[in-house]
Amino acid sequence: MPNSLDLPGLPKDQRVVVAMSGGVDSSVVAGLLAREGYDVVGITLQLYDHGAATHRRGACCAGQDIHDARRVADQLGIPHYVLDYESRFREAVIDRFADSYIAGETPVPCIACNQTVKFVDLLATARGLGAAALATGHYVSTKPLASGHRGLFRPADLDRDQSYFLFATTQEQLDFVRFPLGGMTKPETRALARELGLEVADKHDSQDICFVPGGRYAEVIAKLRPHAAEPGEVVHIDGTVLGRHDGIIHYTIGQRRGLGVAAGEPLYVVALDAARRRVVVGPRSALAVRRLVLRDVNWLGDRPLAKLDENGIELFARVRSTRAPQPARLVMDGDKVEVELLGEESGVASGQACVLYEGEGAGARVLGGGWIATSRRSDAAEAALARLADAPQPAA
């Protein structure tokens, strides 16, 4: 039987650890690899609040999902282990999420989870078990490159594309991790689950960030950081004070509804000034961004960033998981990595990720990405925000 994971030797001679969340995707991965003859070991990470989350829908890595993963492993006849990573998850993901939100950023905790707990801690565990690879149910794919390493690519099913959440995967990690669902669509995955007789074949997909039930970010932050919700001013970008708010944790860049102020035009949150506890609002035009400065860049391209010429390289950039990649140019300004958007994006906030691609469609290679440190708006918007920053500090 051919080796579907591009591993040396026969499947029966290869141990593969499968990260089993209890959902249909990772369960199908385990089932497929077991059917192909690999020595499969399933591992489920208990990441948070096992008791409270036992019966909550739309979650992962807790309660009912752990039971589902165990049942699937029993059905497939593979060993299964549950590892308690709650303290590690809180330190590496939840606490950082809270601190970032308080600072007025818009963090993406699923990326941080992949970047730390899953592709560092779990990968190390897989190596410790003598595995030749770690396999997951993400909808992306890796392929061998001429360099001898593996590249990361968008999947066949762009509606399920998870490459945005995996940009921080290092080259060393990519060479070890496999994504067997990259060439499949979600309906095909469910059909395979039924073919394999898995009880989770029709299980709903997780929707929420696992520790933020119902998307209620402010409630979670208030519990984690009780003093975070400090009141302050709602200020128009022209400097006019329009009202008061109960804490910047209740707002995100680009927000239109629930601002609690009235004006003669539609208003959007255009900036969050954590130091001054200000929510800055303005017209939609003030949200337009054309240039980004990235920090903590993970570069997966063949040519080192330091060797780019002054014109940079043309590529595609994606600033949110729900948006398609857009034409852009990557340039180096000294040690700074900057992305020039050939069009414009709105609702861009620091703390979000900007992921870079060689192309835009299915199978496009991921060149890496970074976290958005700052963004450049129109000259008029930048000047207005600078005037606000120089204005006197509001009274406590």
Automatic annotation (TrEMBL):
Active site: C113 (nucleophile), C210 (cysteine persulfide intermediate)
InterPro entries assigned to the protein according to its UniProt record, in alphabetical order: MnmA-like (IPR004506), MnmA-like_C (IPR046885), MnmA-like_central (IPR046884), MnmA-like_central_sf (IPR023382), Rossmann-like_a/b/a_fold (IPR014729)
Assigned keywords, A-Z: ATP-binding, Cytoplasm, Disulfide bond, Nucleotide-binding, RNA-binding, Transferase, tRNA processing, tRNA-binding
Catalytic reactions on record: S-sulfanyl-L-cysteinyl-[protein] + uridine(34) in tRNA + AH2 + ATP = 2-thiouridine(34) in tRNA + L-cysteinyl-[protein] + A + AMP + diphosphate + H(+)
Residues that, per the record, bind ATP: A19, M20, S21, G22, G23, V24, D25, S26, L45, G137
Site feature (Interaction with tRNA) residues: H138, Q352
Main location class: cytoplasm
Family the UniProt entry places it in: Belongs to the MnmA/TRMU family.
Name of the protein in question: tRNA-specific 2-thiouridylase MnmA
